[in-house]
Amino acid sequence: MNFTEIILEINAADIENASAIANVVVPYGIYIEDYSNLEAETKEITHSNLIDENLLLKDRNVALIHIYVSKEYNAVEAIAFLQERLISSKIKYKISTKICKIQDYINNWKKYFNPFCVGSRLVICPSWKNLSFHYSDRKVLKIDPGLAFGTGTHETTQLCLEMLEKHVKQKDNVLDIGCGSGILSIASILLGANKAIGVDIDELAIKTAAENANINKVSDKFIAIYGNLIEKIKGKFDIIFANLVSDVIIKLNKTIKNYMQEKSIYIMSGIIETYRNDVIKSLESDFEVVDIKNKNSWIAIAVKPRNK
Question: Quick check: 259 pLDDT over 70?
Fold first, then answer.
């Protein structure tokens, strides 16, 4: 199976708006090269000699967005859409394309995926790399997302992880709706949760999540379920994740309380700033907001059931 790889070159200052446009084209086949804040992002792990010296030579003013379009989609239409939206947004750009085999697609982004710290308790590390520095105060989470979504580099996932470390307690039971690579479920267990259930509508994601649980030696505490949202889920949970998109979260909010206990925490992410009020409005009657965090234009919201 071949992909068309679309390489979009833009000014680093425009990465937020350009990546939002690119995500509309194909939300699960994108990788971003943005080195404008490299030193700050890697300051905690530079001593481990895992940062490729070539990355330090990259132009900080230029960003690249790699968009992978599979053969069942029209790459020409995707390019036309990108050009139209970029022009209307007044974003200067250059576009190039090339054919990319599936194995290249799987491996291409790996050269840009390096270990990084999230919050104060986790280090995210590619499964094919070893940390030469011992972190006594952090748990190391090994991840190989394969073709599934979820390396931890995206703002939505990082927001979830930061909220998780604040709210997770020993022996918590966790539900991860739209689990992707399983990163949130696995992080929950590493930080003390008793068990986690990850559910996803993508069979490949379920397979990948189970493999990542095995890599992190938490398979005995993780269950991966193939299904749409909560249709196959029973029981109540201490922490629930919904790292999805705003319209799906709003729909989910109508029934999610049925899966929560009195002191449960429900963490939502994947919310663009423009939909913040819509999501909060959908929560008003049943939930109390306990935490809101943002990175760039992305929002994460944590709530607990409202006492009536």
Answer: yes
